[in-house]
Specification:
With about 170 residues, the protein is mostly helical. Helix content is about 65%, strand content about 0%. The protein is elongated, with a radius of gyration of 26 Å.
């Protein structure tokens, strides 16, 4: 019977953890968006109160390929954007590629470490994950924030699942 509960714990920790992590990411984005909106409103309020904000600035003449009313227009002789001669689209860089697979493996490892009574193994998991992502995290602050939020959420979910199963079913 213990094997059944251990299997259930691993499945719940490993595979049911990604919706929880996605929910926390969404919550963090909502909080960031509200903070950004409040900051913009505060700056707009300060600008409205600032007497030097009443200064008008003349705009520079329109650049080639742009009309006076700020609508983009095609430059004469340039191919349309949808035509084959327009060139390939610029590649986009994804932040923290492979995160879903790494997250599943991380949750399985944390859950297994707690169920087997080897919590020191969690330090190895965190170290391996951090060293593997170090270069990417150093370059991109957004990636670092996402890494921390995802890692903590993932580990707390796995540890909570393992602890609950261990206390309730395996005691």
């Amino acid at each position: 019977m213990n094997a059944l509960w251990i299997t259930v714990a691993l499945l719940v920790a490993g595979f049911a953890g990604w919706p929880v992590t996605a929910l926390i990411f969404r919550l963090a984005k909502t909080i960031d968006d509200k903070a950004d909106a409040a900051k913009a409103a505060e700056e707009a309020g300060r600008a409205a109160e600032d007497p030097s904000a009443d200064v008008t600035v003349d705009l520079p003449p329109p650049a080639a390929g742009q009309s006076v009313d700020d609508e983009l227009t095609a430059v004469a002789g340039a191919p349309p954007s949808g035509s084959p001669g327009s060139g390939p689209a610029a590649p986009t860089q994804r932040i923290l590629r492979g995160g879903a697979i790494i997250g599943i493996l991380e949750r399985l490892g944390v859950c297994l470490a707690i169920l087997t009574g080897q919590p020191v193994a969690i330090a190895y998991i965190v170290a391996i994950k951090g060293l593997g992502r170090f270069a990417e995290l150093k370059e991109t602050p957004v990636a670092a924030e996402r890494f921390i939020i995802g890692t903590l959420t993932s580990m707390l979910w796995a540890a909570g699942t393992a602890a609950a199963v261990k206390v309730i079913f395996l005691a």
